[in-house]
Amino acid sequence: MSGDWQNPPVDVRVERTRRALQEALFALAREHPLEEVTVAEIVTRAGVNRSSFYQHYSDKETLLADALDAAAGLAGADLPEVAEPLAGPPQALFDYLSHLDENAEVYRRVLGPHGSAVVMARLRGRLEAIVQEGITRSGTPAFEGLPLDVVSAGIAGSALGVIEAWLAREPRPSVAVAADWVWRVLLGPGGSWPAAGER
Question: Which residues form the HTH tetR-type domain (predicted)?
Fold first, then answer.
């Protein structure tokens, strides 16, 4: 017998398996570099079989990117959406950087020179989307004549560089300092996103 009523339990099982795999790899990534973690260790920690891993993920990097997204979401630390001009960094940026700070060892590993290209691309893409939205909503003329995707790629790359440099510092400056650094890079020279007089 088939019908739509059967789909929700399947979706719940799929979500449960994915979440178990994500939590397992996130925990292992806190203990070891990603290249040292095996699929066997992930499935053992998750309590699922090896075929379940490959039903849901083609590789460890994609799983880790999803795991980091999920962990950030659970921490209430989604990257900020810059909808209106602000005088300072939004709370969501503090929350996200606090999440990075609490899991600094994992992020240092995945964002460093031997890190995960998949995770880096995921984070860069999220930052680029935020920058594009911020530029579009602010109506700033600062980037006239430049393609929006080029501007957002440049700004997002700079912000990601700031995050990497902050995580690498010993001792690491506070989250408040990092938020100020990232926010100033996102705004650009002279804080050009908000219209004049709105900052």
Answer: 15-75
